[in-house]
Amino acid sequence: MGLVAILSISAAVVWLLRMVYYKAKYIYDRMTGMQGPAALPLIGNLHQFRFEADEFFEQAQGLGYMLEENGERMCRIWFSGLPFVLIYGAEEVEAVLSSSKVLHKPFHYGFLSAWIGDGLLISDPEKWRPRRKLLTPTFHYDILKDFVEVYNRHARTLCSRMYEVSGDKYSDVFHTVTLCTLDIICEAALGVCIDAQNKPSPYLDAVMEMKKIIFRRQLAPQYYPEFLFRWFGEGRAQEKCVKILHDFTGTAIRARKKMADEAGGVQNLVEKEAREGRRRMAFLDLMLDMNAKGDLPLEGICEEVDTFTFEGHDTTSASINWFLHLMGANQDKQRRVQYELDEIFGDSDRDVTYEDLSRLKYLEAAIKETLRLYPSVPIFARQVTEDLRIKDHLLPTGTGIVIMPSMVHKDTRYWPDPEVFLPERFLDTEANRHPYSYIPFSAGSRNCIGQRFALMEEKCVLAILMRQFKVEAKLATHDMRIAAELIIRPMYGNDIRLTRRKAFS
Ligand code: HEM
Fold it and tell me: From the record, what ranges are coiled-coil (predicted)?
């Protein structure tokens, strides 16, 4: 190699190292101005991290409580060399979620992509923006009200399962409820009744297994690189699950598309089926219509159906479960819920109608209060791609932002006696709270697209359950250990005792 070449390469290496040094210094200088636990060179705070689902959440919350004294509800942590900022105050959250520039998700959302592709939840803003615009009308009340029948039907099956475990003993109902919410979302998204509450299926097993694999990987940095995960982690097990999941949704989508093509379009097909009283519109039908107009490719339909199925069953199940626990632990509040139900339904065992839903004011307040104490998604995150100012800090490009709704929901400035279960907070129309002090569904333009669906579903399912059963919780709320996985769940299950209130016809 000639001297010139050696000199050129050396100059390039020096130049690269200088760039890296200045970039690292730029980030480091900005991050050191922020409160946070002492970090070591290279590994940062990694050695202090707890990787168990309960300890990890407790640790993050503990850190937040320790570091709120100077009026800032944010702190920095170093995940090895990567800077992260934990955010747990309404004002700080507003700076992030109201910004149209902070819409990217960090790398660990990518672990979901084997299942849900590049759907709404994880896609980059360039892809996300037009698709969100396209899909938002899908969640309009005019469409959602047709799902009330689906909620009722599966809630009644859930009731039968609950009868089987009712009586003197306490039973863990967490999984039982999850099967119901999975039935509901599969029928709403795909138009297919998987009947998970009555029979096992490879699809059901794959859904359950896949969630565990994704969560285990999130807490195992050694498996972040794809090849290490594939060869030494659970990559192969994941591949098997993904095949079952995609075969199932792919087959249902292709079959429905074929039927729509044969009927001369989705609208014709849906109208024909409605005349025959056979089936109602599913999100899939609306998306096939978009596909026929050239707005959404078939691959996009698969991504979004899988995204809805993933995001739309565990979240609602967690929330229904915590609601049942809180009812069992707060008998006075349970009586108020049942008083309202008895006023509306009397002794009748009729279905819940769309009109009933808006009359269930106390039930709705109790659901919202449940989501305040136990927001189903314990943590969500953003990636800074342009320097972002929050209060006196400039978060440099590359910073990961981690938002903790459960802590935002316990800020005493907006939530007096934050640990107390008090649905009445949500009936108080005078309450003057910061608009970002309640964020179970996130907020801003990238909030939860399914929140109306979720609230309608929960109200309907819980109206049916609470009419039939009195609930008692085995443990007091302060004795429940919380596991923050993909959703927030009771670490050792949701043990409740159910006794029948009236006959089930
Ligand atoms: C109690 C129930 C639910 C809760 C608490 C909840 C919460 C959330 C949260 C916090 C996010 C933001 C996540 C992030 O930024 O990383 C989100 C996003 C999302 N949720 Fe939900 N969710 C619920 C139910 C549902 C349901 C039933 C569906 C579908 C029918 C759904 C579909 C979605 C989708 C597609 C996104 C991504 C939206 C986007 O980025 O544009 N969710 N949800």
Answer: none
Tens digits of residue pLDDT in 350-400: 999 999 999 999 999 999 999 999 999 999 999 999 999 999 899 999 999
Alpha-carbon distance 36 to 67, whole Å? 7
Spell out the residues 6+ positions from residue 15 whose beta carbon is closer than 8 angstroms to its own.
none
Q: Which atom of ligand 1 is nearest to the CA of 185?
A: 30
> HSE on the CB side for 462, CA within 13 Å?
34
Cα–Cα distance measured from residue 196 to residue 183, given in angstroms and rounded to the nearest whole number: 6
- Express each pLDDT in 445-477 by its tens digit: 999 999 999 999 999 999 999 999 999 999 999
Task: For residue 371, give every residue at least 6 positions away whose Cβ sits within 8 Å of its Cβ, in sequence order, or none.
Answer: 319, 440
Task: State in Å: Cα 183 to ligand 1 middle.
Answer: 18
159: annotated binding-site residue? Answer: no
Number of Cβ within a 10 Å radius of residue 205: 12
| pTM to 2 decimal places | 0.93
DSSP string computed for 296-314: S-HHHHHHHHHHHHHHTTH
The residues with which 403 forms a beta bridge, in sequence order, are 87, 380
